[in-house]
Specification:
With about 425 residues, the chain is α/β, with parallel strands linked by helices. The chain has a domain of about 260 residues. Helices cover about 20% and strands about 40% of the residues. The radius of gyration is 21 Å and the shape is globular. About 50% of the residues are buried. The C terminus is likely disordered.
């Protein structure tokens, strides 16, 4: 099935319009209103990048410092590989980490076609049409990695690269345990008035009794546009923990599908986001229960500044054969002043009996009593507001450990310090 995904995506892209307000999933993210005319058409017409691998048998000096803290380190730019480091320990364990062009995707990725193109839109088809390839991580059966796998995507903001479609594909073998951290950021060069688009994706399969942790750090420049479509599939008694953090980009639109195919499987989705002035963030999740006795949980929290707008759309779907499902969905938002907007739309679609499912959402301002208490203890008003906001959002990081926890706590702290408008001021 060589290049089957790309070929099908190209046909879909040509047959579909850009999603508009008539598409419920995009109704609150009206691209024609949020973006200058022709932005997406210009990006879609950008020539694809080259796919030649820069051979790097040794890490760069910065990478060498990470050798003690990671099993594997993959660096890509505009979705294409720049360097790949696989430690001797990883090789001995049987871990495979490589980059593969779209023409030669592994069978495990091609096998997800039916899931990937279920009710697709043009943005999703665009990703698969134009992605040059994917960073592939394959964890063998029974392998338990005690250090993370680091993947870094850098978009060179030189005014030339208007589009990037990076992809990460993970296969966790039965009984294995692994952690992947994917960081996306832009170089410090000027964008020269351009609005580059990053249209990214993650696919991951967790075989029976495996544990897969995946963390995504999106720290792109404020002028950039970020789309993300993820798919995680858990087999019998497998556990998938996914965390996404969005502290960059002027426009963010994501969707994560969690497919619980195996009896006793478990998937937990967590996310945090900051929507500053003139930023629009739209997060979507699907917890799709297809087997009995599976557990899922989604917890997403956001902080919205005046002039910012966040949207969260979450769905718990329980199929006919998924009795004894245990599923929860929560979205909480802080409104950091007048003019901040947060739309929260949690939904249930239950097609069987004997299940435990619930959802909830809240949107509100910082607690004035807590602010008063911190200020009475010597906190300046801005620092008190920042501390409460950080504590509110940090709950989403509860499933992280080690290096991932340190990175995201630092990202959150830096992003909040960069905020200039707070509640009541």
């Amino acid at each position: 099935m060589k290049n089957n995904l790309s070929a099908k995506a190209a046909k879909l892209f040509d047959s579909l319009p850009w999603p508009g307000p008539d598409n419920e999933a995009w109704r609150r993210t009206h691209l024609e209103r949020l973006l200058p005319k022709g932005t997406l058409d210009a990006a879609a017409a950008s020539p694809p990048p080259g796919t030649s691998l820069i051979d790097a048998s040794k890490l760069s000096p910065a990478g060498a410092q990470d050798a003690e803290t990671c099993f594997v380190r993959i660096i890509t730019s505009a979705g294409c590989p720049q360097s790949i480091y696989v430690s001797e320990e990883a090789r001995a364990t049987g871990v495979k980490a490589f980059w593969e062009s779209a023409e030669n995707f592994p069978a495990g990725l091609e096998a997800l076609e039916n899931h990937l193109f279920h009710n697709p839109d043009r943005v999703q088809a665009w990703h698969w049409r134009n992605t040059p390839g994917a960073a592939i991580v394959q964890i063998p059966k029974g392998a338990c990695l005690n250090k993370p796998i680091l993947i870094e995507e850098t978009l060179s903001a030189d005014g030339k690269n208007l589009f990037s479609a990076p992809h990460v594909h993970i296969e966790a073998g039965g009984g294995s345990e692994a952690e992947i951290i994917w960081s996306l950021h832009a170089s410090e060069a000027s964008l020269q008035g351009q609005r580059p688009v990053v249209n990214a994706g993650i696919t991951g399969t967790a075989e029976a009794n495996s544990k897969l942790r995946v963390t995504l750090r999106q720290k792109l420049k404020g002028e950039m546009i970020f789309f993300l479509n993820n798919l995680f599939q858990a087999e019998r008694d497998a556990l998938v923990l996914f965390m996404e953090s969005h502290t960059g980009s002027s426009l963010v639109k994501t969707h994560t599908s969690a497919i619980l195919d195996g009896e006793g499987s478990e998937i937990r989705l967590n996310g945090l986001y900051l929507a500053g002035k003139d930023q629009h963030i739209d997060i979507g999740t699907l917890q799709d229960h297809r087997a009995p006795r599976a557990v899922s949980d989604a917890l997403y929290k956001g902080a919205v500044y005046p002039g910012g707008w966040s949207v969260y759309q979450g769905l718990i779907q329980v199929q006919h054969d998924a009795a004894k499902t245990d599923a929860y969905l929560t979205n909480n938002n802080l409104l950091l002043g007048d003019g901040a907007r947060a739309d929260s739309l949690p939904q249930l679609n239950i097609l069987t009996d004997d299940v435990k499912c619930s959802h909830g959402s809240t949107s509100g301002k910082l607690d004035s009593a807590q602010l008063f208490y911190l200020q009475s203890r010597g906190f300046p008003p801005v620092e008190a507001e920042r501390a409460l906001t950080e504590g509110f959002l940090a709950e989403t990081l509860k499933n992280l450990r080690g290096h991932a926890a340190e990175l995201l706590h630092t990202d959150l702290e830096l992003a909040l310090k960069a905020g200039t408008v707070w509640a009541d001021g």
